Amino acid sequence: MAKRHPNDPSTGKFPLPLGLLIAVAIAVLTAVWLISVIGSSPSSEGTARENAKALIGGPFELVSQDGETVTEKDFAGKYMLIYFGYTFCPDVCPTELQAMSTALDQIPAKRLAKIAPLFITVDPERDTVAVMKQYVALFHDKLIGLTGTVEQINTIKKTYRVYAEKTESTAATDYLVDHTSIIYLMDPRGDYLSHFSYGTTPEEMAEKLNRLIPVD
Predict the structure, then answer these.
(1) Residues within the annotated binding site?
(2) Which residues fall in the annotated binding site for Cu cation?
(3) Which of 124, 131, 148, 195 would bridge 152 by S-S if both were Cys, CB 3.0 to 4.6 A apart?
């Protein structure tokens, strides 16, 4: 079941104006990503989906919140629902993960059993196994947190065409990470099937998942 995130952004470390600026920046990054990778013309929807299928996804090796090595093969036959973010994210990441969790609670059990919801960090230097385990427990019982070495994370970022860069010097320990905010839906073969843009409501997400994922 989805759990309510305990942090209130209005009383958090980052003031609201900064949070709004971050949300706007992520929305812009996401729009640029959609245009460059997915395409934006309704008349080319089929072609755009095929292009995305060719460009997004592939092999990976990461570490779960339980400290176990995980690859794409562990999710063969499942619909991977993937969000890239980081645990120190002040508002956008917890908001999107909560939306994903709420959507999952609106899906019938048989369909839910076919979905593997994944939260993959773009900040492996701070998001250790222990940190990821504590963080994903705040959202949904089925949510799997994945981290790894800097090299492993850089590899999967390239594999999934994810943009993520620190906003401060690499020596700083207190920094934000600019990143695209996209929830990917991959099919049972690990190929791109669809995506959810930043701000998609749980109801819209649940409706699309119910439509795209068949129940035997």
Answers:
(1) 89, 93, 179
(2) 89, 93, 179
(3) 148
